C-alpha cells in the first residue's frame, strides 16, 4: 500500500465503516483500541472495547460529531499538540459539552523553533525507518509527563472512557497507543497493524494535509517527501517496539522512569485495559 497514490474511495469507505474505526462526523482516523488480543497463549483476553480511543485533531468536528462523542461515552479528551502547533494550523480543540478537554502537549514551545522544525521535517521527508525511529525516540524522551497523565487516567478512572489525539493521529498518538497496547499485553504484530491503519484513517483528509505541507519550504514542490511524512508502515512500528525494548528497557521500564509509575500502578493499568469475555 503506497503512500504516493490515493486509495480507492470505495475501499476506504468500506474499511472506515467497520471496527476498529468509529464514525464521528468531522473527525478523521478515530478508532477504538478495544478487542486487541492480549497475552499470547492465553485464549480469550482482549483489550476493553469502548474505553480507549485514538484519533486525529478535532478542529473540524461537527455538531453531529459532538453528539457522537457524547453517545460513545467519551468523557475526557487528551490533546497532545503544542500551543504553537494549534496556532500554526488554526485548529483549536473545540468545546465539547459532554467531555473535559485536557491539553497535555508532548513537545513544548521551544521544540517548535524554526531550527527544530526544519530538523524534524527533514527526518519526516526521508520517510525511512531510521528517520522515524529518531523522531519516535524524541517523542519518548519528551513525552513522559504527557503519557503519564493518560496512564493515571487509566489507573484511576476505569469507568471513564477517553480519547487522545495529536494532529494526524499517527506519531505521538501512535506512540501512546503502542504503550497502552503493550501494557495490556498485545502482541507486537497487532500493535503494528493498528499503527498501519492510519494510512486508511487519514485518507479523507489527504488533500487538506497536503495543502498544509506544501506551505513548508522543505515540502514545497516535493510531493514524495510530503507523502513520506504521512507514511505509517507496520515495519516502522515493529522497529520502534524493538527500539523501546533495547534502548529503554521495555514498556514497563519506560513508564517507571519517564512516567513515574510503579509496579502496582502497572498492574492496575493492565487490569483496567483488558477484559475477559462474558
From TrEMBL:
Lineage: Eukaryota, Fungi, Dikarya, Basidiomycota, Agaricomycotina
Name used for this protein in its record: Uncharacterized protein
Amino acid at each position: 500500500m503506497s503512500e504516493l497514490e490515493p486509495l480507492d474511495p470505495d475501499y476506504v469507505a468500506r474499511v472506515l465503516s467497520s471496527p476498529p474505526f468509529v464514525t464521528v462526523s468531522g473527525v478523521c482516523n478515530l478508532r477504538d483500541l478495544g478487542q486487541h488480543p492480549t497475552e499470547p497463549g492465553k485464549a480469550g483476553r482482549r483489550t476493553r472495547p469502548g474505553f480507549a480511543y485514538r484519533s486525529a485533531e478535532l478542529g473540524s468536528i461537527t455538531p453531529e460529531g459532538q453528539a457522537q462523542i457524547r453517545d460513545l461515552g467519551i468523557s475526557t479528551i487528551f490533546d497532545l499538540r503544542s500551543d504553537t502547533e494549534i496556532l500554526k494550523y488554526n485548529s483549536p480543540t473545540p468545546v465539547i459539552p459532554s467531555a473535559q478537554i485536557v491539553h497535555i502537549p508532548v513537545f513544548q514551545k521551544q521544540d517548535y523553533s524554526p531550527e527544530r522544525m526544519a530538523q524534524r521535517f527533514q527526518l519526516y521527508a526521508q520517510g525511512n525507518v531510521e528517520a522515524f525511529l529518531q523522531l519516535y525516540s524524541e517523542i519518548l524522551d519528551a513525552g513522559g509527563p504527557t503519557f503519564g497523565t493518560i496512564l493515571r487516567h487509566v489507573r484511576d478512572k476505569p469507568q471513564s472512557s477517553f480519547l487522545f489525539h495529536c494532529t494526524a493521529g499517527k506519531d505521538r498518538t501512535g506512540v501512546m497507543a503502542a504503550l497502552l497496547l503493550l501494557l495490556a499485553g498485545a502482541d507486537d504484530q497487532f500493535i503494528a497493524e493498528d499503527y498501519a491503519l492510519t494510512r486508511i484513517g487519514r485518507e479523507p483528509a489527504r488533500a487538506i494535509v497536503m495543502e498544509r505541507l506544501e506551505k513548508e519550504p522543505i515540502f514545497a514542490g516535493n510531493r514524495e517527501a510530503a507523502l513520506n511524512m504521512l507514511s505509517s508502515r507496520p515495519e516502522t512500528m515493529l522497529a520502534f517496539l524493538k527500539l523501546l525494548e533495547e534502548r529503554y528497557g521495555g514498556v514497563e521500564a519506560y513508564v517507571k522512569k519517564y512516567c513515574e509509575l510503579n509496579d502496582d500502578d502497572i498492574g492496575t493499568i493492565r487490569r483496567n485495559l483488558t477484559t475477559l469475555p462474558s
